[in-house]
Amino acid sequence: MASDQLRVVQEGLAAFNRREFDEALGKFSPELEWDTTRLLPDGRVYSGREAVRAYWADVVERWDELRIEADRWLEGADCVLMLGRLVGRGAGAGVPVEGPWHQLWWFRSAVLVRCDNYCDEAAALRDAGLAG
After folding, report:
1. pLDDT confidence tier of residue 77, bands split at 50, 70 and 90
2. Model's pTM, two decimal places?
3. Strands (E), 24-95
4. What domain count does the chain have?
5. Could you tell me the residue range of the domain that residue 113 belongs to?
6. Can you tell me whether residue 47 is helix, strand or coil?
């Protein structure tokens, strides 16, 4: 049986993949932090729902198709780790893309407060305290 934390993250990811950003963001603390520094060379930390919404809107505008697919879920005491991949087609030329994308979701008092995004599975496992 999935924990409440895992269910919240899975529901949020499904809403993101449907482009229902308000539904997804409603599952997070208003002070949510979305960290892409471990995923992108020019990554940064987006703070607050509006900043994250603007980032997501910018990202999906660059793709004809974009979704995050979970391959495996792991849970720690205050976190949920999604090991998966990004699958999509770039806008314009429609070039297919698939690559690793892992998300480490942090909870405080049962509320989602942060998501750290990774391309390196070992780093995500280590930061979640779930390595080895």
Report:
1. confident
2. 0.92
3. 28-38, 45-47, 63-75, 79-90
4. 1
5. 4-123
6. strand
